[in-house]
Design goal:
The protein is an alpha/beta fold. Helix content is 43%, strand content 22%. It is globular, with a radius of gyration of 15 Å.
């Protein structure tokens, strides 16, 4: 992983870092040892999606966020319910209003087809679906969508963006190869805040 050059102004960096720092302070008071609280996850999803330069063209008038759960998995369903509740306090992604939908995973292709048909801007893949990442990567190849996961390993394998709690603080990750395949474009200054996988 090599450093990336900066071509975005300090205002962008300060705005992101300031909001992220506030979110981290909120999250580290209540975080379990290995899990980022739902309120902080929702904040990270919203802020990261807002910096995708292709989000407005992709989303149109509303950013549709899909939370994907593993059927019959209690942890996955609990995470989704907590995220839906957390998103109730977040009305917009950047300048756009947002909707949030929970979708039960029935296969990578059907998920990709559903996201395309519904013009979903973001698909959040819950941790219980870590074993499906290879299939998801292939299904979303050349799709116009931002995928996000709560595990660095899932990002390394093919989810576009990820975050994980390390040393009591959230860390951000991006798979640049998959980002290009899914038409996600993050400013260089934001990339500098992330661990980059290629």
């Amino acid at each position: 992983m090599r450093p990336l050059s900066c071509d975005v102004g300090d205002v962008c960096r300060r705005a992101f870092c300031g909001g992220l720092a506030a979110a981290i302070l909120l999250g580290t008071r209540t975080a379990a040892a290995d899990e980022i609280p739902a309120a902080l996850q929702a904040e990270l999803i919203t802020r990261l999606a807002a910096y995708d330069r292709n989000m407005k063209a992709r989303a149109g008038q509303t950013v549709n966020i899909v939370i994907v759960v593993k059927p019959g998995d209690g942890d996955s369903e609990r995470t989704a319910a907590q995220l839906v509740s957390a998103f109730e306090r977040i009305e917009r992604v950047g300048a756009l209003p947002r909707t949030v939908t929970t979708l039960t995973y029935t296969g990578a292709k059907s998920l990709a087809d559903s996201c395309k048909a519904n013009h979903s801007g973001v698909a959040f893949i819950t941790a219980a679906l870590g074993g499906e990442v290879e299939a998801l990567r292939a299904a979303f190849d050349d799709a116009d969508i931002l995928t996000i996961a709560p595990r660095a390993a899932m990002t390394r394998q093919g989810i576009v963006l990820g975050f994980e709690l390390l040393s009591s603080r959230p860390r951000l990750f991006i798979n640049l190869t998959q980002a290009e395949r899914q038409h996600v474009s993050m400013p260089a200054e934001i990339l500098k805040l992330m661990t980059v996988f290629r």
